[in-house]
């Protein structure tokens, strides 16, 4: 692709834009020079979707919008902009209209659900001593420690925010399932992926943090979306 589209990366709960570090480096090696990573406040789905829309609107040209974890709900809500050519979900929530991430999780709780705890201000945290085992068991202890210490906690109420008009009903979609995910049940990922009728589903033997542990395969999927929809 002589003129590659922009890639806009949207993080989820308990992480910030820097969680995409390995994906950013891999995309750069592949010649993508228009890479953006949204830093969402994680205060409500409406706030996060608006922040993401603002970044996408700054891009002149086609955008492949990529969401990890709760970031999938964000791109579902914000991905209807005309220059968005594809939605890529990385071990992510993909709610339908009237659904929330919390509702989906309650229907099939993930293995690490008990390792999430609220603080006195209403923010939800992954217990630091459980972060490696819960979120990123396939990265090094050192990398998981940094993730745990720098985790970005969402307001608990954000879990209950419903999607209004899911962009995946109108845009080409791609989905990566993490088969060893302990933060979103892998069967929930499969169900959400299949009902979107995506152009491609891949399964990786990976934790929830597949963007950190399997950046090559994640970028293969992003590149497929870019090639098929924005070429």
From TrEMBL:
InterPro entries cross-referenced by the UniProt entry: AB_hydrolase_1 (IPR000073), AB_hydrolase_fold (IPR029058), Sec-Metab_Biosynth_Hydrolase (IPR052897)
Example of a GO MF term: catalytic activity
A Pfam family assignment: Abhydrolase_6
Signal peptide range: none
Positions of the AB hydrolase-1 domain: 7-220
PANTHER family named in the record: AB HYDROLASE-1 DOMAIN-CONTAINING PROTEIN-RELATED (PTHR37017), ESTERASE_LIPASE_THIOESTERASE DOMAIN-CONTAINING PROTEIN (PTHR37017:SF11)
Protein name, UniProt field: AB hydrolase-1 domain-containing protein
């Amino acid at each position: 692709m002589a003129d590659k589209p922009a890639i806009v990366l949207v993080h989820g709960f308990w992480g910030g834009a820097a969680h995409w570090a390995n994906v950013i480096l891999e995309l750069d090696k592949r010649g993508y020079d228009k890479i953006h990573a949204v830093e969402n406040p994680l205060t409500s789905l409406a706030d996060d979707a608006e922040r993401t829309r603002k970044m996408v609107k700054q891009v002149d040209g086609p955008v492949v919008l990529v969401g990890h974890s709760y970031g999938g709900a964000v791109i579902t809500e914000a991905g209807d902009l005309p220059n968005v050519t594809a939605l890529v979900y990385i071990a992510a929530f993909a709610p339908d209209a009237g659904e929330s991430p919390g509702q989906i999780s309650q229907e099939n709780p993930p293995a690490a659900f008990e390792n999430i705890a609220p603080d006195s201000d209403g923010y939800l945290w992954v217990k630091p001593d459980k972060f490696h085992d819960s979120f990123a068991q396939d990265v090094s202890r050192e990398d998981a420690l940094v993730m745990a210490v720098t985790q970005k906690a969402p307001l608990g109420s954000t879990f209950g925010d419903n999607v209004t008009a899911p962009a995946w009903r109108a845009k080409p979609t791609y989905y990566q399932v993490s088969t060893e995910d302990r933060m979103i049940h892998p069967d929930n990922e499969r169900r959400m992926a299949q009902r979107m009728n995506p152009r491609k589903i891949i399964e990786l033997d990976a934790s929830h943090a597949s963007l950190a542990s399997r950046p090559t395969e994640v970028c293969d999927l992003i590149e497929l979306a870019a090639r098929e929809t924005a070429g």
